[in-house]
Design a protein that fits this description.
single chain, 328 residues, TATA-Binding Protein, Nucleotidyltransferase, domain 5, five-stranded mixed beta sheet, four-stranded antiparallel beta sheet, 39% helix, 17% strand, RVT_2, Reverse transcriptase Ty1/copia-type domain-containing protein
């Protein structure tokens, strides 16, 4: 349309985008709602109530969007039918917000939140808190299909960290600054009949590496579980030993176990029935011992520092192990 110069057009009704459009829309909507039987709330003009013998309903309005709730489907259908006589409406029976997808199964979202906390706790356990390594490793086993019991355990572990936030690793000089000692242990059986092993490496008396891990192989005895732990610990110790050799001359790593049967198998040069299915691990350990690359010794169970990496200990035992790891 061509408008003559110095002339304007007068609108017959409100047009979307004009300054008056929002006010006109609001007045029109109020009129329609009052005709249907809604009454506005005195405290909040955008909230309307409907009351009839068939039931009650509540309507919240935000610009041209709204949320309708009623005491029955019958009253909801009646209101929608009345609104449809005056307006073009789009009805969605489920309320969703921006960037929010409504789902009937919340287990996946719960699992994501659980995994996030497990990741945070793993970072702490691997960096400065070996005392929670076993607990985090155990809780990580239930990362899929979590329930209230697992969440309570997570909260309990976080509470333990909060109460013991003054515990730190103490790194200092000792009488034998170059020695490598590795405490290793295994807890036979567990989830899915799979054992958990752990090892703690001290360099000059200072903790520098630790691990708590669920074994992939099902051990048939405590000695076998301990032997698998020995193979993992030996590989890490050899790597650390080679690293240290470039910096300083260190003696062969000393591996400490509290299982005499495991030590007997390792010191023997003959493969036994118990270790036939662990032939690779057996050959590795046997060659390392014969070549004096590692030294395998027995340690009393009471002095086994890796115990905290394989099972849940009582308060007194935890304090004793922490003092041995130099955590105060």
């Amino acid at each position: 349309m061509n408008v003559p110069k110095f002339h304007v057009l007068k609108l017959k009704k409100a047009l979307y985008g004009t300054k008056q459009a929002a006010q006109c829309w609001w007045l029109q909507l109020k009129t329609i709602l009052h005709r249907i039987g809604f009454k506005s709330n005195g405290e909040d003009p955008s909230t309307y109530f409907f009351d009839s013998p068939e039931g009650q309903a509540m309507l919240w309005i935000h610009v041209d969007n709204g949320a309708l709730a009623g005491s029955s489907e019958k009253i909801i259908d009646f209101i929608l039918m009345e609104l449809d006589k005056h307006l073009q409406i789009k009805w969605d029976a489920e309320i969703t917000g921006l960037n929010c997808n409504l789902i009937s199964d919340t287990s996946k979202e719960m699992d994501k939140a659980y995994l996030k906390r497990i990741g945070i706790l793993l970072y702490i356990a691997q960096g400065t808190r070996p005392d929670i390594s076993y607990a985090v490793n155990y809780l990580a086993w239930f990362s899929m299909g979590t329930n209230s019991t697992h969440w309570e355990s997570i909260k309990h572990l976080i509470g333990y960290l909060r109460k013991t936030n003054n515990i730190t690793l103490k790194i200092g000089a000792h009488e034998e600054p170059n020695d490598l000692k590795c405490y290793m242990d295994a807890n036979w059986g567990g989830e899915g009949n799979r054992s958990t092993h752990g090892f703690l490496v001290l360099h000059g008396g200072n903790p520098i590496m630790w691990q708590s891990k669920l074994q992939a192989t099902v051990a048939l005895s405590t000695a076998q579980a301990e032997y698998i732990a020995l193979s993992f610990a030996a590989k890490e110790c050899i790597w650390l030993y080679n690293m240290c050799q470039d910096l300083l001359k260190a003696p062969s790593p000393q591996l400490l176990s509290d299982n005499k049967a495991e030590i007997g198998i390792a010191m023997s040069s003959v493969s036994r029935k118990q270790t036939r299915h662990l032939i690779r691990e057996f050959n590795l350990i046997n060659k390392l011992i014969i070549s004096n690359k590692i030294c395998l010794d027995w340690v009393n169970t009471q002095n086994q520092l890796a115990d905290i990496l394989t099972k849940s200990l009582g308060q007194l035992n935890v304090k004793k192990v922490l003092s041995g790891i130099i955590m105060t």
